[in-house]
Amino acid sequence: MEEPEMQLKGKKVTDKFTESVYVLANEPSVALYRLQEHVRRSLPELAQHKADMQRWEEQSQGAIYTVEYACSAVKNLVDSSVYFRSVEGLLKQAISIRDHMNATQGHR
């Protein structure tokens, strides 16, 4: 055989071999095996992240409840200012009556 013919046949053989290796490497069962291996390696870390996120969510919910409770308490204080002013007025009136009574008893 001549050199160019031998090179052509060698190229055909290597191309067929490369194609066979490519098909074998990308066969669906191999792909599924690789996917399974990836999941097996990744799952513990993902499970830990999920647990961390759930814990952080619980802590956040607790903090949100605390803030909402504090806001409600402040709003109630603001709303009760009317009652505080009323009590203040009644106290001033009681002090005035007491002073008037003391002044009246002192003049006797």
TrEMBL record:
<protein>
    <submittedName>
        <fullName>BLOC-1 related complex subunit 8</fullName>
    </submittedName>
</protein>
<keyword id="KW-0458">Lysosome</keyword>
<dbReference type="GO" id="GO:0005765">
    <property type="term" value="C:lysosomal membrane"/>
</dbReference>
<dbReference type="InterPro" id="IPR019320">
    <property type="entry name" value="BORCS8"/>
</dbReference>
<keyword id="KW-0472">Membrane</keyword>
<dbReference type="GO" id="GO:0099078">
    <property type="term" value="C:BORC complex"/>
</dbReference>
<comment type="similarity">
    <text>Belongs to the BORCS8 family.</text>
</comment>
<dbReference type="Pfam" id="PF10167">
    <property type="entry name" value="BORCS8"/>
</dbReference>
